[in-house]
Design brief:
Layout: E1 22-25, H1 30-34, E2 43-47, E3 52-56, H2 60-82
Antiparallel strand pairs: 1-2, 2-3
Length: 83
Amino acid sequence: MRQPDVKAKRKKRMIALKEIRNIVMGRTTKPFEKYKNGKDHLSFSLQGYTRSLDLEAPSDIEKRIFIEYLQVVIESSSSEQKE
């Protein structure tokens, strides 16, 4: 996965797995709106409690695999917290 090239002040380019609460498909966040040269169908955002991380996959297959993995991790994490 790669993060779109952001020339503005750079924040951490990571988000802890335990912080991810949602995955949003497409280029829907403000940072994505600034950079129009990306591919909407390969883009997604990992939304955390205080920030989000915008990513673009190199291919449909890699996007699908990565998101499926993250969904399992998120579901596993949330079920552990409920116990």
